[in-house]
Amino acid sequence: MTDQYAELDAALERVVEAAKAHLAAVKAAQGRVDDDDVWQAYVNLNNTSFAYDERLLDAFGEVTPWDVESIDPDEADQRFGGGTGGLGGADADPHPRVISVRQRRDYRVPSVAALLRVADAARRNMVPADEEAGDVESVGEAVLELLQAGDGSLSSLDVPELEPLDGLLTVSEVAAPLDLEAFEDEDGAGPFAPAPEDQLVGRLDEHPFTEEEEDEHAGHNH
Questions:
Q1: For a tag on the chain, would you pick the N or C end, based on fewer CB atoms within 10 A?
Q2: Greater pLDDT, 24 or 219
Q3: Number of structural domains, the chain?
């Protein structure tokens, strides 16, 4: 039993040393997600944790909170690191084109007055108390205000004051990324217009639920 305790102590010590090495590698990488040393240290920490967990289970039927599986370092390098020891190695295979996702969603405004009130409230919440917020004066300005309050997320438009209509999302492969400086601020079409060499991968059509469909969908979730 003493030898068994010694093996457990040694296995635990290897976990501690692996954790320290992993932390040192992470610090040295300064946030680089493709650092080979971090990857190697991660695999070592994973495998030493797995080995300790197995020894503990065999000896006492006890387990650790670590839900890990053993990683084959060679197989992991080939699968995740391009075959050269780690993520993003010299043989990494970046895609030669850029993926462009474009979305359009339309809304009907049941009540202009109600939408303006919601947008006014959103603007006041964003403007410092010692500054004058000013009134929201148009439907377009109101929608823009809601988007700004939601950091540009379309989910910020999921309000009763806007009734969603059909929408469209496309995924394309393009030769070059978007260059915002190439378009005037007033140009709303240019940045979305496909170039001749762009390749449309596919599109997703969005259809809002009717009231009957929403009730049926809610019923299925209960």
A1: C
A2: 24
A3: 3
Task: Indicate if 213 and 157 belong to the same structural domain.
Answer: no
Query: CA–CA separation, 31 vs 215, rounded Å?
Result: 46
Structure tokens at 136: 């929201």
The pTM (predicted TM-score) of the whole model is 0.51
Strands of 96-208 (E only): list them: 98-108, 163-174, 199-206
Q: Where do the DSSP E strands lie in 122-198?
A: 163-174
Q: How far is CA 160 from the centre of its chain?
A: 27
Task: Tell whether the model's pLDDT for residue 184 goes beyond 50.
Answer: yes
Res 88: pLDDT: 47
Q: Which residue has the tokens 């070592």?
A: 44
Tokens of 68: 């890990």
Q: What does the pLDDT look like over 107-148, one tens digit per residue?
A: 999 999 999 999 988 888 877 776 777 888 899 999 999 998
